[in-house]
Each structure stands twice: as C-alpha cells, then as structure tokens.
Amino acid sequence: MIFEIIMQYYLVIIFFFIMVFIERKYPLREKKFSVKKRVLINLSFAFISFIIARSFSYPIIFIVRGIFGEDHFGILKILEFSAILSFIFSFIFLDYSQYVWHRINHSIPFFWTFHKVHHSDPDLDASTAFRFHFGEQFFAQFFRFFVIMLFAVQMEYVLIYDFISLFAIVFHHSNYYFKYDKILSRVIVTPSIHSIHHSRDFSEMNSNFSVVFSFWDRFHRSFKMTENVAMIKIGLNDIAENDANKLLNILVWPFNKKDKGS
Ligand SMILES: [Zn+2]
After folding, report:
1. Is the entire prediction scored with pTM above 0.85?
2. What spacing in Å lies between the alpha carbon of 8 and ligand 1's midpoint?
3. Residue 168 and residue 159 in contact, taking contact as beta carbons nearer than 8 Å
4. What element of type H or E holds 79?
5. Which residues cross the membrane (predicted)?
6. 3-class state of residue 176 by DSSP
7. What's the 67 CA to ligand 1 centre distance in angstroms?
8. What is the 136 CA–ligand 1 centroid distance (Å)?
C-alpha cells in the first residue's frame, strides 16, 4: 500500500507540471507575480505543512483507531451494499463531506484563520492547490477520520477518492482557459467556477465550495457563475500581496494576534 501511495504523489506531481505548462499556453487571467517564485513558495509551504500536520495528527488518530478497532458502527456496514454500490456511495459521501468541511472553514472564524492562508494567494494557479496551512490540514484529518468512521468507508476507497480528488484540486485551481469549461462545470468543479471562489468580493468568495462534483453547490444554492471570469480580483484584502508571497509570513499568520478575527 505504501508503494501505491508514493506512486500516487509522483503522478500528481507530473500532472501538476503538465498543468503549469498548459496554464502558460492558455491562461485564463493575467499573472501578477513570477510563476517560478510562487511555485517555489507554495510547494515549500505545502511540504512544511504536510510534515507538521501529520506529525501531530497521526499519533492521535492511531490511538483513537486502536480504541475503536475495526468492529465499529458505520452506515455503509448497516446498508450492506454490493462492492460497486459501496464504492459509489463512499465516493459520494467523501466528496459531500469535503463540501461540508470547506463551508465550515468559511463560516467558523477559528477555522477561517487557517483557511484564509489558502485564499491569500494573490495569483491563482495549479500551485495554489498545495497551499494549505498545517493548522487546516491538522483539523481536516480529524474531520475526515470522523466521516470515515461514521460511514465505515473502506481504506482502499478513501485512497481512490484522495487520488482522484488531488487531480481535481490541481485542475480546478489552475489558471487554464479551458474551451469546454462551461459544459464540464455542470458536473465537476472547473477553473472558471473555482476562481469565483477565490475572488476578493465576499459574495463571490462565499460560493462554489465543491471539490470534485459541482452539484453540491447547486443543491445548496451556493453555486455562482460570472461571465467575465478573467476580470475577477483574486486574493484577500486582509494581507498585502507581497506579504502573502513570503513563506514565514503565511506560516505564522494564523497565530498573529493583531490579525485574529479578520
Ligand atoms: Zn475556500
């Protein structure tokens, strides 16, 4: 299983560099900052956050898992679906839970202090897909753990969802002008609808929370479409653009007292 997980990350990194190349050829918006510098900052930030978040979350999850063991209550266990139905429902539950978790990050100030680091990126491209603060990653692990336990989702299905969703996240953050974006956005999250979520305008940012399937937003009436996506002002007003491009600044930003509650 470890080998499969490592392979998964290699393939995502290859897909990421393909998207970086495509973004340069078919850009959706004009860039404000150097791509090389931002890729370096966002990937370094992702690496540091990944290590810190998991160093703290894995031991706790390991202990809790040990307490409950394998034989715990779970909705999918009660329903006793066939393997294919169980996989489809697992995928749907996991994707819906990601929508709910994303909304929680926007509506509860404590979680927003971490998620705002992701939104502070003054340019939006494939590298933004990796820009998640370790605080957000840490709490996300527990939310996912709760969802996996509640629905009794098999670990293989979780890994398949993670694998597919990583590609989806890199794709919808990319600055790619995709010809069939509008048609595709009826089913999955595309660069144009996700760029509305990264707008500085509050009502635009408070929309399009979905991760893989876009219909969660339509179902909850949080879906938004704008004709002129290229004109959207990306980022946050709470932080200067140059500060948002400094690694140390964004690492400590959620713990900075004067910014609390912004
Ligand atoms: Zn968000």
Report:
1. yes
2. 24
3. no
4. helix 75-79
5. 6-22, 43-68, 74-94, 134-153
6. strand
7. 33
8. 11
